[in-house]
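This entry is retained here.
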Amino acid sequence: MARRSSSQPPREPRPDRVAAHFTGLSAESRAAAYLVAKGYRILARRYRSPVGEVDIVARRKGVLIFVEVKARNTLDGAAESLLPRQQRRIAAAASAWLAANPDDANGDIRFDAVLVAPGRIPRHIPAAFETE
């Protein structure tokens, strides 16, 4: 891998990647607000571990919920974008959360999705997927 000399400025991120990043942040904020309105307590947003990331970690009525937020132009498009590979990554990050928060390991857990599209109310899908 070639190293940049110190006289070269750092590369600017591609505009489409910057737009995608801010779209994701906005969608996560909308999803978190929607969940709070439904009575969920947000414990963490954008929880990162060495094995993956969970967009939102929440709790409601004693159930710990790991939430994946998907933003697309349509809610159906968002639903179709939750792939098995991502589900495994989310499950791995959830395991890391549970290892770091052992008090949470004894209760019920669930994997939800919140789908976000422009001009639409977010769609919350409880138990969107299961893990092994």
About this structure: DSSP finds three helices and five strands in the chain. The CA atoms of residues 38 and 60 lie 9 Å apart. Strands lie at 41-49, 52-60, 63-71, 108-116, 123-129.
